[in-house]
Amino acid sequence: MDRAVTVVPEAGLHARPASRFVQTANEFECDLRVGPADESATLVNARSMLAVTGLGVEHGETVSIVADGDDAEAALNALESVLSTEEV
Amino acid sequence: MRTLTGISVTPLSGVGTVQWYDPAVELPETTDSEAAGPESELAAFEHARDVAREELTAERERTAKRIGEAEAEVFEAHLEFLDDPQITEDVTAAVDEGSTATQAVAETFDSYVEQFEGMEGRFAERAADLRDLRDRLLRILTDSEHTDLSTLPEGTVLVAEDLTPSDTARLDPDAVVGLATVGGGRTSHSAIFARSLAIPAVVDIGNALFDVDDGTTVLVDGEAGAVVIDPDTGHDQAATATVEIKPDPVSTVDGRAIEVAANVGTIEELTPAVERGADGIGLFRTEFLFLDRETPPTEDEQYETYRAALEAFPDSRVIVRTLDVGGDKPISYLDLPDEENPFLGARGIRLSLEENTALFEAQLRALLRAAADGAGDLGVMFPMVTTVAELDRVLELVASVDNDLEREDVTHAVPELGVMVETPAAVFCAHELAERVEFLSIGTNDLTQYVMAASRGTETVTDLHDPLYPAVLRAIDRTVREGHRSDAWVGVCGEMAGEPELMTLLVGLGVDELSMSAVTIPSVKAAVAGIDSEAARALARAVLTAETRAAIRDRLQLG
Question: Where does Mg(2+) bind (chain B) (predicted)?
Fold first, then answer.
């Protein structure tokens, strides 16, 4: 199961939004990977701060999140909500 | 003689011998076939991670204590990356394909370092963190010995391509007289650490630094941002003048004399104190004479030590504090009780008066004998005084030792006497105490601890252990006023005296003497010379009416 989400926070997938993204991913059991929404791009472990920030995704870019497991749908919903929330 | 220039990080200077430091780990030439099998290679990786975690945790604690809580956060980032699943995944995959743990770690980290190096801003900092962590893991995996940065010989100028925060946090400021690096910037973590440790430092010197060999004598001039190779004497003096080591007493802009003295804890610290231009010793601790031995020091042994201190400062004052120990510092030949709360127990003058009068009398005899020698002017101060009766008892003992020496026909003199103000009790009785002695010396670290009921060592209350709370500043103000009302002069010894922003406040509160670790003396003297005492007084008045620490920090413009 996968979903394409456009990154809203001003900082992109850096610093606090990235940290919140990784923490949210850690709340779920399923396998979670994330990467640029580009068929040929390599996806990385969504639970790794290093890998997620290493993507260098900026505000306004679209990422693809792939989930595999029982709670996949819930995980995708939660991660989508992190990425589409303006940082407070 | 040649001069290289860079960016100044610490406005202090030091002359010493170059020692190059290369944190990079030499990797053994191995081929995949040398891997001992995925299982044991993985076990080696797990073990290295455990060791690294322990090291990082210890370094984080040490940094928090020596440098600051915020600075210690850099180690949090390292710890976060240490267990990052992506790294574990990559290392495991490489090991499964036949790599050794060492190769797998090197390859995995290198690819991330490269990736982050190509990015901007704070991502570049992550690259530095990852390099640091990679080198740590490789060092552990290959059992490599690093130059132990915490035990460098005295007079070392450490030279490196760059230094990581963990390298810098390990440096012993008593041994390392300077730092010079090829790269680095003024606001890097390493630079902040060097400044906090008061190590003269110049960074971003460039490739020319590579030509400076081990063993060369260099001057690190942190004021000019320069490294002078093989400085000749003339240049050395010129450079020293630029860092404002002032051997003479200083006054404020409007002519108020402020004595800037050194805190000294061992006999070895006398020379650096003289070299730094101290106006004397404001606190000569005597614990080193008594600790780590089987029997107490003899009267003669003590006499020689006090004389050595006086001779180091032939024209100025040396203030010796009598033995200040208690249940927190074990002394084998004293039967000190185990106390539930040693900081509120038998320590300082209490111990000298109640438990060990003989030991105290021997110290007083040695001090009175030393006071008779022409060199310098001796002052003696008594720690942890809380009542007027205690002080009266001390003064009786001094009089009786004076009588004994007179009767025995031993050359002696009664030195200037003073009281340490470190407890709220002493603050409230400052007037009566000061009437009996020549001076008061405020020990700001202990005073803060007792006024705020917050120990320095307890992590959960470290925030309360801050002299910038109104209660502590009002205690200092009261002590100075009461001391002056009794015609005693008032000094401050403690970390607070050495911080330029707070020093102006102390001068404004009317303090006559500031005593601090020798390393900060040149910058404090330079700062004192720029103070207008009327403006400092106005600042102190404004601070004393503030109701909260936040308001005080605001008035001191401390962000």
Answer: 422, 446
What does the domain layout of chain B look like in residue ranges? 2-23+147-240, 32-142, 251-555
Which positions in chain A have a beta carbon within 8 angstroms of at least one beta carbon in chain B? 14-15, 44-45, 47-51, 53-54, 56
Cβ contact B99:B107 at 8 Å: yes
B456 annotated as ligand-binding: yes
Whether B422 has a binding-site annotation, put simply, is yes
A19 contacts in B (CB within 8 Å)?
none
* Burial class of residue B137 (count of CB atoms within 10 Å of its CB; 0-12, 13-18, 19+): buried
Domain count, chain A: 1
CA separation for the pair B271, B356 (Å, rounded): 32
User: Is there a contact between B84 and A53 if contact means CB atoms under 8 Å apart?
Assistant: no
Superfamily assignment of B2-23+147-240 in CATH?
Phosphohistidine domain (3.50.30.10)
Q: Is B445 labelled a binding residue?
A: yes
Is B87's CB within 8 Å of A47's CB? Answer: no
Catalytic residue set of B: 189, 493
**CB pairs A-B closer than 8 Å:** 32
Question: Token pair for residue B309?
Answer: 């201190």
Residue B84: which of A14, A48, A56 has the nearest Cβ?
Answer: A48
Fold of B251-555: TIM Barrel (3.20.20)
Q: How far is A72 from chain B (nearest CA, A)?
A: 19
CA of A83 vs chain B CAs: smallest distance (Å):
20
Catalytic position from the list A14, A36, A66, A71: A14
The chain A residue lying nearest B114, using CA atoms, is A54
Name the residue among B86, B122, B123 with its Cβ closest to that of A51.
B86
CATH number, domain containing residue A44: 3.30.1340.10
- The candidate with the shortest Cα–Cα distance to A26, out of A86, A75, A82, A81, is A75
Q: Which two tokens stand for residue B73?
A: 């956060």
B321 annotated to bind ligand: yes
B143: Cβ contacts below 8 Å, ≥ 6 apart:
none
> Residue B449: how many CB atoms within 10 A of its CB?
22
> Across the strands, what pairs with B260?
B514
Q: Kindly indicate whether the domain formed by B32-142 is annotated with CATH number 2.60.40.420.
A: no
Distance from CA of B128 to the nearest CA of A (A): 13
Q: Give the CA angle between residues B3, B6, B9 to the nearest 5°.
A: 120
Min Cα–Cα distance to chain A from B66, Å: 27
Hey, which residues does B321 pair with through a beta bridge? B381
CB contact under 8 A, A14 and B123: yes
SS3 (DSSP) at B544: helix
Q: Which domain holds residue A37?
A: 2-84
